[in-house]
Amino acid sequence: MKYQKPILLIHGGAGNWKERDSEKAIKEINNALDRGFEEFKRGSSLEAVVEAISYMEDSGVFDAGRGSVKNSKGEIEMDAGLMYGNKLSVGAVAAVRVKNPIRLALQVMEDGRHVLLVGKEAEEIFPSTPLSVEDTVGAVALDIDGNLVSGTSTGGIANKLPGRVGDSPIPGAGYYATSRVAVSSTGIGEIILKILPAKEVDILVSMGLSICDAVRSVINKVTNIFGKGNIGMIGIDNNGNATAYYNTVGMARGIKYGNGERKSFVFEGEI
Question: Which of 136, 152, 186, 248 is an active site residue?
């Protein structure tokens, strides 16, 4: 569906939301949309994506930031990635323990020397607020100047081995953005890493498919190979067309656009 710019589209993870508090998820999705959308007034898609994801990290409702699950040692290790499509700038971190991994990823992007930093070294190079305490959160945005940005943040999967890195900090897997599209993925990282679905969406759009058809085609491909219950994606293109699709029981998601119109869903509902 096509929307008026600026546009912010976010997700709070694909999974079995019938076993979780879907009403609270909707509330926090709406709050994150409002918080991120405000950034369009004084910044670009980059600020909108970072602010929306930071809010979801702080909410404690999703598997990111304060709500992160623990690994097999009872520790928290988080991943996040961010991409500015029009500049092909990327910043990512993995296995970190800070309050807002997406803000740490932003610092890596702005520094510009590297794409991905891991563990304590990332925290030491870019000091951040420590974290005081199975879904990923993500956002994509298109501003009035045509800038496309995508970002993803996660606490990973429960009881993962220490040092495990999923898809969320890997460009082309958990997120990807170019001058054509911005995409964020959620689901089982080990499957997403094998397919690189976010990159595949960009390739399909470059070949002439719509963003909606591209996202559906990639998710159907994953379903055909691995079955259902493992992936969801949100995407937006440079013309303002946006979509969200998943093969799980539900996916918390929402969009805010134009003069502030907003809609959000966990189960049925078309973005």
Answer: 136
